[in-house]
Amino acid sequence: MSTFWSLWIIVLTVGSIIASWWLIWATGRMRNPDEADEETTGHEWDGIREYNNPMPRWWVNLFYLTIIFSVGYLILYPGLGNFAGVLGWTQEGQYEDEVAEFEERMEPLFSGFREMELTELAEDETALAHGRAVFGNFCATCHGSDARGARGFPNLRDAQWQWGSTPEDILHSIKHGREGVMPGWGDQLGDRGVTETAVYVQQLAGRSADPMLARAGQRHYQQLCASCHGPEGRGMVQLGAPDLTNNLWVYGSSFEAISNAIRNGLHGAMPGHEPIIGEDRSRLVAAYVLSMMEEVPESGNSED
């Protein structure tokens, strides 16, 4: 915070406290009881007059106590611009202390898991319970509470993984994240070329397709797409290019969805979670995901 704004806050805060004290003193001071009985606010209704008597002393003292409390608080804790308070308290510091205390309490549990392989953790009920809790807090927002994904977010249960399905690959994805970028080819192909290529991709996935359009699309595919997805469309783990032959799609399987991906491209990014949840919890989540993996379904609408 700049010096100007710090002083601005200090002046407003201190001025408000002084003004509050003056207002209470001015309106709450005692007057002569005889005079008070005769002084009214000028309001009268149905023969009843409103008197302007001072506030009870105990009530006035409560207001003074709140002012004293506020002054003490601003001395001890931050609240006056850049002045940090004599205690040096910060919300970040309190958060870090609480996290450190929690990690210290969890250390005996995590230390036992560190010696186990991911495949062992995937069969340990205690480890899976903790992995499930971490997944629910940090992963379910995108991948769903059942880990079956949604449009744009891969299904984690179908054993189809763009970046590899080994325990090490899955752990790397969780810890460091992944980013997949497919360029748009609309300018190079034009509307006709996009249609032909989309038809060929549908044919790769085992769907019925117009043979003439598919043949024309195959030429486009080999020129622009095969370098990432492979000549036969089986994908490339090193690049995160998905297999186009299994009829599983992250961004939708309709002709319109496939055409849109070819024309405009796609950009998918998963953030790395190691800075957020740490190594131990990353391993527990990886084990939990491994425990849910199923056989590849015959059809579906997502691709990992």
Helix-strand sequence: HHEEHHHHHHEHHHHEH
Mean pLDDT: 89
Structural class assignment: mainly alpha
Strand order of the largest sheet: 1-2
Count of individual beta strands? 4
Uncertain runs are 296-304
Number of helices: 13
Biggest beta sheet attributes: 2 strands, antiparallel
CATH architecture of the largest domain: Orthogonal Bundle
Describe the oligomeric state of these chains in a short phrase.
single chain
CATH class value of the largest domain: Mainly Alpha
**Percent range for β-strand residues:** 5-15%
CATH fold naming of the largest domain: Cytochrome Bc1 Complex, Chain D, domain 2
CATH superfamily of the largest domain: Cytochrome c-like domain
* Count of spatially separate domains: 3
Principal-axis shape: elongated
Radius of gyration: 34 Å
Helix content: 55-70%
How far do the termini sit from each other? 46 Å
What's the structural blueprint in terms of helices and strands?
Layout: H1 3-28, H2 33-38, E1 40-45, E2 48-51, H3 57-76, H4 91-114, H5 118-121, H6 125-138, H7 140-143, H8 167-176, E3 178-182, H9 186-204, H10 211-224, H11 226-229, H12 255-264, E4 266-270, H13 274-292
Antiparallel strand pairs: 1-2, 3-4
Helix pairs in contact: 1-3, 6-13, 8-13, 9-10, 9-12
What would you note in describing this structure?
- There is one protein chain.
- The protein has 304 residues and is mainly alpha-helical.
- The protein folds into 3 domains: 3-89, no CATH class; 92-177 and 273-292, Orthogonal Bundle (Cytochrome Bc1 Complex, Chain D, domain 2); 180-270, Cytochrome c-like domain (Cytochrome Bc1 Complex, Chain D, domain 2), CATH 1.10.760.
- The chain is built from 13 helices and 4 strands.
- The chain has helices at residues 3-28, 33-38, 57-76, 91-114, 118-121, 125-138, 140-143, 167-176, 186-204, 211-224, 226-229, 255-264, 274-292, and strands at residues 40-45, 48-51, 178-182, 266-270.
- The strands form 2 sheets. A two-stranded antiparallel sheet has the order 1-2. A two-stranded antiparallel sheet has the order 3-4.
- The longest helix has 26 residues, at 3-28.
- The two termini are 46 Å apart.
- Mean pLDDT is 89; it is low at 296-304.
